[in-house]
Specification:
With 206 residues, this protein is an alpha+beta fold. It has 1 helix and 11 strands; from the N terminus they run H-E-E-E-E-E-E-E-E-E-E-E.
Length: 206
């Protein structure tokens, strides 16, 4: 074999060997790049998830400051609860109006086993009872009747002074007012949500 043929053969082997290493390096780099890309996507996803959870935790839902009027019906009798607004200032008395109306065309009657006709309780944001209207009251035990002609109504009003069982003013936050009629044959329960806002700092002139 001539020298020129041997030189050519060495060059071809060298060329083929170099191409193999180049391919191996490209393969390794491409795999690492793919891994880095996947890791980058996962990290970005975790960043967005963390930001979303942070916003969810720290965001406050603002409910409209509008009158509340919720009702429940049974056999043409409608029990409704009315509150003038949704948000209240700290220490502001809250008036709860309870009403039972006969919306039928025939006479109805509500029967009670005592002089108590209704009850109202307040729950905090954890749904724990912190105040109840009937707690410090005494009621006579006797059967009582409230007759209601068609379209007749009977009203009860309760005021909550934003105090708890111990007489202490409750802190600002979310509260639930639970009202119910305690008639012997029908005891509807209505729950409404309110907000007590923190007091604003008022700068006094010196």
């Amino acid at each position: 074999m001539s020298d020129s043929v041997r030189t050519k053969s060495r060059r071809e082997r060298k060329k083929s060997s170099k191409g193999f290493f180049d391919k191996l390096i490209d393969f390794i780099l491409s795999r690492w790049l793919r891994y880095l890309f996947i890791i980058g996507v996962i990290l970005i996803g975790f960043m967005f998830l963390g930001e979303y959870l942070f916003l969810q935790k720290n965001s406050k839902v603002v409910i409209p400051n509008e009158p509340i009027n919720k009702s429940a019906a049974f056999d043409n009798l409608v029990f409704s609860v009315g509150i003038l607004k949704t948000r209240f200032k700290s220490k502001e008395p809250i008036s709860i109006l309870l009403k039972v109306k006969n919306e039928g065309s025939s006479k109805k009657a509500l029967f009670f086993t005592s002089s108590q006709k209704f009850d109202v309780s307040v729950l905090n944001s954890a749904k724990a009872e912190i105040w109840r209207w009937s707690k410090d009251k005494l009621f006579t035990m006797a059967i009582e009747e409230i007759p209601l002609n068609p379209q007749d109504e009977t009203f009860f009003e309760v005021k909550w002074k934003q105090n708890d069982f111990n007489g202490q003013i409750v802190p600002p936050g979310t509260y639930y007012i639970v009202s119910k009629c305690v008639s012997s044959e029908w005891q509807p329960v209505i729950e409404v949500q309110i907000e007590i806002e923190p007091e604003k700092n008022v700068k006094r002139k010196t």
